[in-house]
Amino acid sequence: MFRTRPFPSRAMPAALAVSILSAAVPALAAKPAPPLDPSAPMVVAAESTTQVWTALAVLPDGRMILVSPAWTGAPGPTLALRDTDGTLHPYPDAGWNAPATPPEKRLVSVESLQLTDDGTLWVLDSGIDSGNHAVTPAKLVRIDTKTASVTQTWTIDPTVLRSGSHVAGVRVGKGHAFILDSGVPGLIVIDLDHGTQRRLLDHHPSLTAQRPITVDGHVMQDTTGHAAIVHASEIEISPDGQWLYYQPPCGPLYRLGTDLLTDTTITSFELDDSPTLWYKTPPLGGMTVARDGTLYFDDISTGSIFRFTAGRIYQRIVVDPRLRWPATPAITADGQLYVPTAQLDRTPRFNHGQMAVQWPLTIYRIDTAALPAPVR
């Protein structure tokens, strides 16, 4: 999910490009609704005293599939299954999480996952260990959650990567996988039927971090003491597969039609002009989308959760000091929103190489179906 590096010295042209891009394709004005008062209730769904969970998927029977990337500095499997009684198992099995396993059948650092309605779990592995070394090639893994078996693997072609690449986010739709490179700004598109891979929007302003990440008013720093820069790593796809939403953790949010990304006749010039500035978000730990198209954002700067409806109404539904760097949430078909608190600002990557997480880390559940509709 995160690869950090100092800000480039020539940031002004990129910032100017963002300004030009925003002027060319202005977003429709968002409509604010009053914050929920009181905040939506949060129920403890799971806790960890050893692992930093940054993303999850919730199976229909209530079990959770949990992501713990290697760069968080926590021990244990990078992908785990939590039974309803709290028992944890390496997922899909111990072999896929074992250092002795051949690279093509090993998960080193899961960065992102997506559970689709047919029970397919899409898992993105950067292959980069806690020491920032590429141990295995980056890959996309498809798992049948009904049988807990890997059904296919796509190795990311080295030709679509760059020196310093770190694949960070994935969403699948329309027979394609859309993968963000947070190390070197870019979007990788894989045709899942034919296996062809393309790198698009290379160094595009919409994928490039233009400001540092702030939490509690403090600028996050990498292990070298520089301001941590993380390019686009947050990604979501609309329920109908028509739109891709993405942003660097620092924001803002952009939207782009998936038809443009899958059409090989579209020129790079046409594609460069296509992203739309969709919402000027605060720094986000992650986002997810409900069946009705409502986006839910985890605001790491204030410990808040916002919703942003398909009608462009936004509303804060939770503000709570327990939400210390809420990470990528997940929402079920019946509107149960699961939010992992990751405290990433206390992990070695953002804390001068020191682990200072205050255990336990908690996953909270919010019943969004019980919330009143936002009214302006």
Automatic annotation (TrEMBL):
Annotated localization: Secreted
Primary localization:
secreted
What span is annotated as the signal peptide, if there is one?
1-29
Q: Which GO terms describe its cellular component?
A: extracellular region
- Entry keyword set: Secreted, Signal
The keyword Signal is assigned to this record:
yes
Entries under InterPro entries matching the protein: 6-blade_b-propeller_TolB-like, MRJP/yellow-related
What domain of life?
Answer: Bacteria
Query: What name does this protein carry?
Result: Major royal jelly protein
